[in-house]
Design a protein that fits this description.
heterodimer; A: alpha/beta; six-stranded mixed sheet; 3 helices; about 25% helix; globular; B: alpha+beta; four-stranded mixed sheet; 14 strands; about 50% helix
Chain lengths: ~110, ~475
């Protein structure tokens, strides 16, 4: 059975930092694919193209594991991810169940 | 949220990080550069109009997808009233900002997509319309600023897209994947994409069999990785960056019309945002339906709003030197009104004679002949309007000193003496700067080429006019027999 978000053509993305729950975002379906392409093929985050921020990522199904260059606090990482998702026109959401997962590890 | 406020739009743009180059530098914040800021502030003012109860009928529509109130810039016209309000919106926005409504081309692009994707699904059994409607519902729900990019760089005009030495002069498909497509190429003369959330890209012209990789339509987010914007740069950009005070400028808050060259360097577009991919037969329909809407709005209404501002400025200039009652001045003002209102009448006629296209789609498009007449008439009329404004405004339109020179202890008193007339020098110089913005600015060629250069409208006249019928009725009245 199609989920409500599928019927509306949107998808819910859950962002977590260092294994802790971060925030959910709603974007048009395909947002996760765009985000993953940015990280894996372009090695950057949306909104950070051709900046010194680079990303290493691994995609397992609908789960994307990311490591960002540079030492940053979880709050800083969350801010960067927030900007990246807004730049793909996805917005913070408290509704719906996440079907795509972005897991970010900070550099220790 | 179905309607964003002006402030909410500004807040949303503050976090957008498009890759933008202007005047020799890459910028990271659109609101910190005075030129890019003027574009964003114009968009913000357009959002503000929808908040104003006075403009609700023009600026707010009802979504045919959700029944919710939406900004008219994201509305698909479903009847004659929608078409009429659409052209009235173009008039109002131009009167308000004196530059582009940077959501205008996006609005006309989405109407073309609503019509053509419906036809494709009917003819080909594709799912483009369903996909487009989901994208549109999302854009409406979040009241996104959507711009339109239609013009390919084109290269050597004698050659087809695939014959170009460098096919990057046309947007084209690089790779088709399970999750989407990768596109590459250049779009030029694009108005306001930098400050939009998304841009709709349509084919730039008709395509033939064998040109499938150029048959693309899609929505791209403003900061999609691989996308860069190279902004126009001219004397007005330099003046805005260097003047130190917006008060010096002819259109202080909203500036000239800001465009950019968009470079798509292998940009990924998820399938959910792709509305044409390879179906060459429909590329021409998409662009002509866009043009049909845009000629009514950009030609017959937007430029009429500009003309209203120019006429107002010219009348003030006349009053400030005491010549407003001179017959030839009044005659020139009347001529300016004649040029502009004739075009507006064509736009209203295009809306009133609009029709559902294709039948069954529920999408209404303006009458093609009247829309082309609106655009062709204003393309020529606008130069006449500017000529009269320059005439009435006098040499001061191009010889005025800076506003702040009036405050200089040495030259200020001289300038006040020189330019004080019925009105004080500051008022005269302010109006002169305003008229300079129009008569010596970017809007002449912009009006000529926007929505297609006049040669395209002339061509459309030859296609749309039934010349044989005209000959036949002339022969009948003359009593001439039909040739066997």
């Amino acid at each position: 059975m199609a989920s409500k978000s599928n019927e509306r053509g949107v998808e819910i993305l859950a962002v977590s930092i260092d294994g802790k729950v971060g925030r959910n975002y709603e974007g048009l379906a395909g947002t996760f694919a765009g985000f993953a392409d940015s990280c894996l093929r372009m090695k950057t985050l949306p909104g950070y193209y051709r900046t010194d921020l680079s990303v290493e990522g691994e995609l397992k199904g609908r789960r994307l594991q990311l490591a960002l260059t540079g030492k940053r606090t979880p709050a800083e990482l969350m801010e960067i991810l927030d900007t990246a998702l807004l730049n793909l026109v996805a917005f913070p959401s408290t509704e719906g169940e996440a079907e795509c997962f972005i897991e970010v590890k900070s550099e220790k | 949220m179905a309607l964003k406020t002006a402030q909410e739009y500004l807040d949303s743009i503050k976090k957008m990080k498009p890759r933008v180059y202007i005047g020799g530098k890459w910028i990271t914040n659109l609101l910190q550069n005075p030129v890019t800021k003027s574009m964003v502030m114009a968009n913000s003012a357009i959002y503000g109009l929808a908040e104003d109860p006075t403009h609700q009928e023009v600026m707010v529509a009802t979504s045919h997808l959700t029944g919710e109130p939406i900004n008219r810039n994201l509305n698909v016209a479903r009847n004659i009233h929608d078409l009429d309000m659409r052209q009235e919106m173009a008039l109002l926005t131009s009167q308000t900002v004196g530059t582009c409504n940077y959501r205008c081309a996006g609005c006309d692009a989405l109407n073309s997509l609503a019509s053509t994707t419906w036809e494709m699904d009917r003819d080909l059994g594709t799912k483009y319309n369903e996909r487009f409607n989901k994208w549109l519902a999302y854009a409406q729900a979040n009241d996104l600023a959507v711009s339109g990019a239609i013009t390919d760089a084109k290269g050597d005009r004698k050659k087809r897209p695939s014959q170009q030495d460098d096919i990057d002069t046309f947007i084209h498909l690089v790779e088709k994947r399970d999750d989407g497509i990768v596109v590459r190429g250049i779009r030029v003369s694009q108005s306001g994409a930098i400050g939009s959330h998304e841009t709709l890209v349509l084919p730039g012209g008709g395509l033939r069999e064998g040109e499938e990789k150029f048959a693309l339509a899609f929505a791209v987010q403003n900061s999609a990785p691989g996308l860069s914007y190279i902004c126009q740069y001219n004397a007005y950009s330099a003046e805005r960056e260097a003047c130190g005070s917006e008060d010096e400028l002819g259109n202080p808050l909203y500036g000239q019309r800001e465009t950019s060259t968009m470079f798509f360097d292998n940009v990924f577009i998820p399938w959910e945002r792709v509305f044409l991919c390879g179906e060459t037969k429909y590329a021409g329909k998409m662009v002509t339906r866009f043009a049909k809407a845009h000629r009514m709005n950009c030609g017959g209404a937007c430029k009429v709003g500009f003309a209203d501002l120019i006429i107002g400025g010219a009348m003030l200039a006349a009053e400030y030197i005491g010549v407003e009652k001179i017959p030839h001045i009044q005659e020139k003002i009347i001529d300016m009104v004649r040029y502009s209102e004739t075009s507006h009448a064509c736009a209203i006629a295009a809306a009133m004679r609009g029709r559902e296209e294709p039948k069954g789609s529920g999408v209404f498009l303006p009458d093609d002949l009247f829309g082309n007449a609106a655009k062709l008439n204003i393309a020529h009329g606008f130069w006449e309007i500017m000529k009269n404004a320059g005439d009435i405004g006098g040499g001061l339109v191009v010889t005025a000193p800076r506003m702040k020179d009036l405050d200089d202890p040495e030259v200020g008193p001289v300038l006040k003496k020189a330019f004080g007339a019925v009105a004080a020098a500051d008022k005269r110089i302010k109006v002169a700067k305003f008229l300079q913005h129009w008569t010596a600015g970017l809007h002449g060629p912009g009006t000529w080429h926007g929505a297609g250069a006049p040669q395209t409208q002339r061509f459309m006249f030859t296609v749309l006019t039934d010349f044989e019928a005209k000959k036949k009725m002339a022969k009948k009245l003359m009593g001439m027999k039909e040739d066997k």
